[in-house]
Each structure stands twice: as C-alpha cells, then as structure tokens.
Amino acid sequence: MDWLQLALFLIVLLLLVKPVGLYIVQVLENEKTFLDPVFKPIETRIYRWSGINPNHEQNWKDYLVCILGFSLVSLLFVIVLLAFQYYLPLNPEKFAAPSWHLNINTSFSFMTNTDWQSYGGESTMSYFSQMAALTVQNFVSAAVGLSAAAALIRGIASHGKTTIGNFWADLVRISLYLLLPICIVAATLFISQGVPQNFKSYVNAQTVEGGTQSIAQGPIASQQAIKLLGTNGGGFTNVNSAHPYENPTPLANYLQMLLILLIPMAQIYSFGRMVKDTRHAWCIFASLAAVFIAGVFVCAFCESRGNPQLDLLGISGSNWEGKEQRFGIFGSALYACVTTVVSCGAVNCMHDSFTPIGGLIPMLNMQLSEVIFGGVGAGLYSVLLFVFLAIFISGLIIGRTPEYLGKKIETFDIKMTMLAILPFVLVVHGFSALACFTDWGVKGLGNAGPHGFSEILYAFSSCTANNGSAFGGLSANTPQYNLTLAAALFLGRFLVLAPVIALAGSFAKKKLHPKTAGSFPVSSLVFITLLIGVILLLGALTFLPALTMGPIVEQFFMLKGKLFS
Predict the structure, then answer these.
(1) Which of 57, 175, 293, 303 is the S-S candidate for 163 at Cβ 3.0 to 4.6 Å?
(2) Which parts of 437-539 fold into alpha helices (H)?
(3) Is the pTM of this model over 0.90?
C-alpha cells in the first residue's frame, strides 16, 4: 500500500505537469488564458494605478534593481506591521508585538520565501499579521522567485537581445493568474476537509483530565493554500501541518503534497516549451525524479525499521515517535521528502524524532541546494546552475568550448555560476561552526551529542536553502540565533538570485551556434547520468564531513546502544 500510494501520487503529478506547465508559459509570455475575462480588467487597472508599462523591457541590471527594491520595501513593510501588531485590528487574543530580534528574523524569513519560524504562530501572531504581513509575503515572495526564473529562461531562449522582460509585469501576472486562482480552489478544498476559516476568538475547552486548553482558530485555510503552493511553509500553528486544524485528513495530506510539488515540477516543462526543447526538459525532470524517489525509499525504509535497540527490549516495530497515526510511517516520510526537496518548510511530523539516517535524507535534500525540483522559480534557476556546471565539465572532458542549447558558456557565465553555488556551502558551514563553538549556540540545543549537532546543521541548512523546516529540538528564539539565521536567510536568497539575473542578461545577448557532431547531447541518458553525478558529488561531498559528525555517527551509536543525555 505504501508504494501504491507513492505510485498514485507521482502519476497524478505527471498528469498535471504538462497542462500546468503550458498554462505557466501562457502567463509568463503574456498570452491569452481562460482566466482573462476575470483577471484582465484587474491587471489593466493595477498597471494604470501604479504607472507600470508592462510592454517596457528591462535589461538585467534594471530587472535586478527592481527585485532588490521590491524585496527591501516588503521587508520594511512586515517589520513595521509586526512592530505595531498590538494596535492593529483582528487581534482578538491581544497579542503584543514580537521582540525586535524575532521581528527581524520573521520579516527576513517571509520576504525570502523561507518562512522559518522561531515562534508558535497561534501564540504570537494576530489574524491581521497572519494575513496582511505573512500571507501577502507568501504570494509576492513566491512570485519574485518565479519572475527570476522567467528572466533566466528568456535569456536562454532569446539571442542578440539586451532585455529579459519586465519584473513588474511578471510579478503582477504570476500573482494574479497563477497563484491566486489555484489558492482559491485549494482553500475551498481544505475548508471542505475541516480546516477552519473564520475570525472567531480562541475557544477554551475542558480536557478529559479536567484541565483547560485553548484551541486556536482563525483564517487558516487561506494561508494554508499559499504556504504550500508557493513552497513557503510557514504554519498558522506551531506544529504546522501536523496540527489537525491545518491537516485534518489523509486526503488533505495528499492534496498538500500535490500543491507543494505542482509548480516546481510543471515549471521544468514550461522551461522546455520556452526554449523549444521539451526532450531536454524531460531529461532534467528524470534526473531530479530519480534522486527524489531514491531519497523517499531510504527515508521510508529507515523509519519503517525503527530503532533496533528496542527489539532487544521486546518492543519491535516502526519508528512512530513524532508522527501522526492518521498519516502513517510512509505518509510522514514521503511528506518529509516532498517538503525538503523543494523550499517548503511545511511538516506533518517532527523531523527531530526521525532515525539518524531517516533524518539525514531531509537534511541532505536541502544541502543539495534545493535543486531536486526546488521551490517555485528558485528550484528551476538553481538546477539550471547545475546544468551549466555539468555542461562545463563535459566540455573540459572532450576538450572543447562548452555549449548549451546553441550558446557558448564563457568565462563570465562560469564565474556567475560558481558565485551562486559556492556561498551556500560557506554560509551553512560557517554559521554552524559559529553556533557549535559559542555558549548561545550550545544552550539552544534540545539534545546532546551528534543529534544536537544535527539540530544546528539542519537549522542553518534550512535557512540558507530558504526551506524553513526545522528539526524541532532547537530553541532558536534568542537574539543570537534569530540574527544569524536571518543573515543566512538573506545570503541564501540573494547571493544566488543576483548572479542568476546576471546570467540571464549574459545569455540573452549571445548568438546562436548550430549544433555539430561535437555538441554535447543534452537530451540523452549520458546527460541524465552526468547531471545526477554533479548534483550528488557537489552536494554530498561538500557536506559529507558535517554529516559524518551528525547523523552518520549517530547511526553507529544507535546500533551500539550508545545514548546521550
């Protein structure tokens, strides 16, 4: 039944990839869509009121300045709104403003499409903050990532040009035509499954033991939809999609996983259509799918076996710690892999409770630079960086200038590619080392030994990869953790995005060269093998020493019965 569940999940996604991918092309290329009668008048008015000329093409520098300027304004908007939360409407629980360092961390988190949370949503944020600050950022931060990917695709597809599109038009059309309509449908489906959507005050209920419990309510379904579709991940409640209000049924759990992977998978087909080489796109898709399925298999296998030390005590069975029975072992492992191969921090179980190797897989998924489908937009341009690197390596092997889809990969392109890839490794290792050798870093640990190190490594991997999920055992709501994690959030987003836009401008002005017998075949099994090898070698080898000190050595300790207090 577990593998049948996976097969049905992948089949449904594959059936959706082409139609959704074609629709994304229509949105990005300003073609007519079936939603034009509804949204075209709204789009036209937005342009008129804001003074945007959607037909004005921008060069890569102007496009990048617009992204950075919009992100800065978004950051300041969230900081101010959270600072005055207590005085704003829709705050029935009278929540005060978060601390200054938590405010900074949260604002950077949602602006970068990460949604890392050092707080419990239902005990910290008002309804107004959840909607006007966090949910709005879920839309626009996802649209920024898709816009950057669209710019890179246009650069690869065009030749002899100095422009790569209009950021403001991309931002409006992606938000209006792509994200909003799918979220309306998804929110309605979640409401049908029992997810609340109201503005009522919290309910104080009496428990079976005779105590009292405050039960959170609020506009959960609307935030739930975009947190998943936009691969954001920030939960309305502290335990995210493990909460019965956020994820009440197995069907809701299934829909959530579909939403998380829908756009990241479909955008690969969109890329193939826009560069007029769908066979190449399907080869990229096959490479990523192979790594994804392998990760699911390893994670599910380890969680189904559990801790062998319990067998010695006569307690055999799977590892159920930190998991919901309504989802099961496989449903939890699959969700953990789905949410970490893309930059979505939603979780339906606690990764901190996974077996050592079971927890290694979600961590490694993020340390592969979120290229295994990745987040909306960000996943596509990240995997294309690895494609450029793979083509460059092939050129070195055969002794000729590397060429990609008829365009030569030159010195500037490789510099920008490495400038986008290398900082990720440096930021994760640098901040993790800093936390390990400082009192504030160690005090935040929920576990000792290698598992404690894994908590730190996971946190900085998650924030730098703009994923947002947490191992669950780290107490990160301190000034030092909030500020260092905020720095990782910012660097992980813009040290990749800026070189990508520069690459878009570089590719746009290149001339096309006809294919020759010496051109590397990018639609072949050889390319698939090379791309998988580059992804695994660059990700696995650069993080292998850190993983050895964390989950790998913990696995050996577990087999020997060694415990840490």
Answers:
(1) 57
(2) 439-443, 449-464, 479-508, 525-536
(3) yes
